[in-house]
Specification:
The chain is an alpha+beta fold and about 100 residues long. The chain is built from 2 helices and 5 strands, in the order ββαβαββ. Bound molecules: FE2/S2 (inorganic) cluster.
């Protein structure tokens, strides 16, 4: 499935990942280094923070307790914040638009 990622510069880039791959890893494979993924995707760093287009919010799996807690401490949380390492590339997300959150 292909999704779109809006970088901090405002540039939009397509990301095509394998089914089941995390969005964070798929983005990195596509050369997007703004989703740093310091913790390797184990929900411990929040460097993969993204804002989900509200139109797609209902297609995502519910937020986990660890994810919720990390986002709460991240400083840039918005109503549709998610950690991209906790989202899997699935057909349900095809066309999804995510915006990279500010650093820190
Ligand atoms: Fe660390 Fe997502 S990569 S929380």
């Amino acid at each position: 499935p292909e999704i779109m990622i809006v970088m901090r510069s405002g540039e939009t880039r397509p990301v095509d990942g394998a089914e089941g791959q995390s969005v964070m890893l798929a983005a990195r494979d596509a050369g997007i280094d703004e989703l740093e993924g310091f913790c390797g995707g184990c929900c411990a760093c929040a460097s993969c923070h993204v804002y989900v287009d509200p139109a797609f919010a209902g297609r995502l799996p519910p937020i986990g307790a660890d994810e919720d807690e990390l986002l709460e401490g991240s400083g840039h949380r918005r109503p549709h914040s998610r950690l991209s390492c906790q989202l899997s590339m699935t057909d349900a997300l095809a066309g999804l638009r995510l915006t990279v959150a500010p650093e820190g």
